[in-house]
Design a protein that fits this description.
The protein has 3 helices and 6 strands. By secondary structure, the protein is of the alpha+beta class. The protein has 2 domains: about 40 residues, no CATH class; about 40 residues. The chain has a two-stranded parallel sheet. A two-stranded antiparallel ribbon has the order 3-4. Strands 5-6 form a two-stranded antiparallel sheet.
Length: about 80
């Protein structure tokens, strides 16, 4: 799932524009964002980060410098690797 500080209507436009198939959470109070230490603005937009959260709720892996090219494949590989552990 995705989390951003945008209002739901802004998120919906983003979802529609990029044909996202996962849920988005609107965190306008930045409660979740702050809990993960992910509040960092880069110019006008927020810096993207990815957290792989295990079944027990702990962070199994974090990516703090996300490059969109190939990132989804890297996350899927990490999920598959953690499933074997």
């Amino acid at each position: 799932m995705g989390v951003s500080a945008d209002k739901p209507e802004v998120q919906q436009r983003f979802i529609d524009k990029f044909s996202l198939t996962f849920p988005m959470i609107s965190d306008t109070a930045k409660t979740i964002i702050d809990a993960y230490g992910a509040r960092e603005v880069l110019g006008v937009t927020a810096k993207r980060r990815t957290f792989l959260i295990g079944p027990d709720g702990t962070i199994a892996r974090a990516w703090h410098k996300v490059k969109l090219e190939g990132h989804a494949d890297e996350v899927v590989a990490a999920i598959r690797g953690s499933a074997r552990a």
